[in-house]
Amino acid sequence: MNVMNASPRRKELTRLAAQLFVQEGFDRTTVRMLAQEMGIKSGSLFHHFRDKQEILAAVIEEGTENALVIAKEALSRCDSSASSRLHAMARAHLETLLTDRNAHVVALYEWRRLDSEARAHLGHLRDAYESLWEEVIDDALAAGLVHGDRFLVSRFVMGALNWTVRWYDPDGTRTPDELADELVVMITRSASTR
Amino acid sequence: MNVMNASPRRKELTRLAAQLFVQEGFDRTTVRMLAQEMGIKSGSLFHHFRDKQEILAAVIEEGTENALVIAKEALSRCDSSASSRLHAMARAHLETLLTDRNAHVVALYEWRRLDSEARAHLGHLRDAYESLWEEVIDDALAAGLVHGDRFLVSRFVMGALNWTVRWYDPDGTRTPDELADELVVMITRSASTR
DNA sequence: GGGTCAACCAAGCAAGCGCTAGTGTAAATG
DNA sequence: CATTTACACTAGCGCTTGCTTGGTTGACCC
After folding, report:
1. Is the pLDDT of residue A3 over 80?
2. B108 in Cβ contact with B59 (< 8 Å)
3. Where exactly are the structural domains of chain B?
4. In the structure, how far is the CA atom of residue A113 from the C1' atom of nucleotide D18, in angstroms?
């Protein structure tokens, strides 16, 4: 078994698992289906993962870590105005949601299938990400760009963005960046400069 | 078997099933668990429902029909100003989400477990509900209350509201009506009169 | 008072489930 | 060369799953 998540083979298996979990749901995805998709027999799966739950945890961990990295980079790359930071965060959020779509859909839909230790560990990762959002919202509130309660606004915004996985069509005419900007337009009072 | 959904016994079974589906998820809820919760043996379940999927469809149908009724009533009860209608719709949405919470959580999380015919039927119900929202958003846009694209705004708003099932605490200090009003404040330009 | 019918039960089948045990093998390591 | 390691295989155990079958019960009806 391979405890490190860094093994390249394991990374690839995790990616394939994410796709199957999205298509079928975690419970309906059998270890035999996973193995076939990976081109091995079902028994061999347990050389890479302790059990089925660990595959789920690996999928979600990948996605959440990527989201954190992308958001932090985006924030560090833009100037410090509240408006810029708000745009950058919204764009980063949708970029992750799109490029790592499978992993995030799994995280949103199958969170409750995690056992308690995995949930605790991944919960911290998620909290770190969400507190990034709350900082950005705080700045926007202080700048008078947005009105309302800090907690509520960040929840509403994340809800609106996460909901996009249910209707967004990557082959459509709108880019994720346009989507993000439209959301910012909707919630901001004054014309916002990028 | 009882094809009508109106049988009182069936209604009660549907309510209990919704609760279990929320607690455990559809796939992990066995017919034996359902039967026990209902105080009967697992075989007897199939006197009321053709199969397990039909129970899921019944749960979602209940919730969606209720949502439609509540929203229509709310809209017919308020005056015709864009602002009033926006407030009324948001409040109705959260009221349904709260009082019929189990059914709606199931609808949001387990939609993909429906077979294709059930999905087609319930899809129409959902579309009817969503077009109510789009009308209200249209009015708000025309009145200059909200800025942006009609399709995007309605999606963002529904996303923000539906996301509440993941974090809202009914025992907390905020009422659903306050939540709805806060959302309207966030997305509207001018001070909105109720 | 025979007939009807919804509601339930006991028993179990066939299929599928996650996972384990034991083995083979080719490449890396000392 | 001997040993270890990574990865895969075969075979199947023990259990649970959704659902079926055949039969019983009691309330209601002409």
Report:
1. no
2. no
3. 53-187
4. 21
